[in-house]
Amino acid sequence: MTVLPNMDAVPTHAANWDSIDWNLAHRVVMRLQVRIAKATREGRWRKVKALQWLLTHSYAAKILAIKKVTTNRGKRTPGVDGVLLKTPEDKAAIVNSLKRAGYQPSPLRRIYISKANGKLRPLGIPVMSDRCMQALHTIALLPMAETKADWNSYGFRPERCTADAIESLFNYLSRKNAPQWVLEGDIKGCFDNISHEWMLKNICCDTKVLQKWLQAGYMEQATLFPTERGTPQGGIASPILANLVLDGIEDLLGRKFNSLNRYGQSRQRSSWGIHFVRYADDFVVIGKSKDVLVEEVYPLIEEFLKERGLELSKEKTKITHISEGFDFLGQNVRKYRFGRTNAKLLIKPSNKNIKTFLNGIRKTIKSMATASQENLIRKLNPKIQGWANYHRSIVSKEVYKKVDYEIWQAIRRWTKRRHPNKSKAWIQTKYFQKIKERNHCFSCTIKDENMKTTVVITLKNASDTPIRRHIKIRSEATPFDPKYEAYFENRMSSKMANNKEGRKKVGALWKRQKGSCSICGERITSVTNWRLHHLESQLEGGSGNISNLTLLHPDCQERGFNNGFKYLFPVGVSKTPA
């Protein structure tokens, strides 16, 4: 095993934690993760367990686990002991406790959050030390889980998102001769009902630690309750455990209907047209025959889930014709007919999703009745932009306009309630401005941070978000397989070219290299195109920081992957012009 220099001793004071070489820690962990993925592909399960043991006992993995827990959104939510890890001393002190010997997790703290339908969802919040232990073992589980995962599983997986799942459905359903029937699967209480026995028998991990997590129980109103089944939502390990439980449905359907070969050397289409797409515990199966979905697919999935302690909700699981449409991940998928024989698949934001979003916006506006205009704009803008970004890869332009209108009406009511005795003209002058060619923009003028100049901040419009088709990830690609390294670099290049922050980073690199490729020395232009390349491979733990990136021509990058990378000048130092 690779050992981190000067990292064998546990830090005892703040300076130690703050001086950790995080890039070095990432390199150590990534190298072991790549080896775990390789052993998984080869079916060497004893080797997988041995490498997992090395990883969970390495200092590098422990400090990265602690960093993950103390920098995520739940870092301010304590468990039953009320303890948080705030200072470098707190973080350094817990490193030594992340060990298997004598480990006993504390009960979870049970809390409830509201669901979209008004019901409450229970969450189990572990104490900070248990969260760190879960994060540590998740680091070891991830490469194995990624290698075994169903190709069309997109939830809680690195480099994947909801847009990939939606694009996968589009690819399957948009063709003229595409399958017409859809089985919408709903697993009843998925996280709460998974069989402990099945997980302990079938998940390749440290089963003693896993068993202790599963049986830790939870505290509610000062009473300890046992956990006899399920993996509570709220824990860091729960999503990856749920994925490991549900992976295999696509493989099962593929072997039954010959629609794919598990490891994909050949993916032949079957006459049944059976395809499967899953995001976390939401899934759909599409097929050409309703009878096949009812009589063969449904029982097959039901039996698969039964072995794992799960079952389909008979009330919510249904089979729909594509002309009626169905909702999936907040979007509506439907094929619209025009003429006698023609039809077109359109994916739009679902009515339920639009209604939920607008209700949330109206609630926020009402709750800020006495807030300043600046604070209201700053509160609403991230919500509007986030919602618009989520739907930017589908047919959303008309919906954006309707949403903008509804928000504008809510804003008008907000201004009228504040000044019931003022005229429309007075309200217009106080709260609205003309920005470029657009009238009635909800805007205000404020001083900048230096209090020297004035700036105008404006309420965002969803309709300003450009529609951009999402490029789906290759179903078989994983970040732990060296043969996909170039693919993920090119994918990152495309993503960065399409967002403002990414373009800034590319511009800085181009300027640093004086517009030249660091391999051939020739100019990089919009005609030649470019690729972002990691100087130290991500598979070796290289970071995404600008200091570890360089711009290359696409063909120079390809030659480099084939023959090795040789740079003309030190990267990070501008090339001297000839």
Describe the structure.
This protein is globular. Helices cover 43% and strands 15% of the residues. With 578 residues, it is of the alpha+beta class. Strand 1 (108-114) and strand 2 (120-125) form a beta hairpin. It has 20 helices and 16 strands. It has helices at 14-18, 22-41, 45-56, 59-71, 88-94, 128-148, 162-173, 190-193, 196-202, 207-214, 238-246, 249-257, 290-307, 351-367, 373-390, 397-418, 424-431, 485-497, 500-512, 554-563; strands at residues 108-114, 120-125, 181-186, 218-220, 223-225, 275-279, 282-287, 318-321, 326-328, 331-338, 342-349, 432-435, 438-447, 454-458, 531-534, 549-552. The model is unreliable at 1-15, 261-269 and 572-578 (pLDDT under 50). It folds into 4 domains: 1-146, no CATH class; 149-195 and 230-348, 2-Layer Sandwich (Alpha-Beta Plaits), CATH 3.30.70; 351-464, no CATH class; 482-563, His-Me finger endonuclease fold (3-Layer(aba) Sandwich). A 4-stranded mixed beta sheet has the order 2-1-4-5, with no helix packed on it.
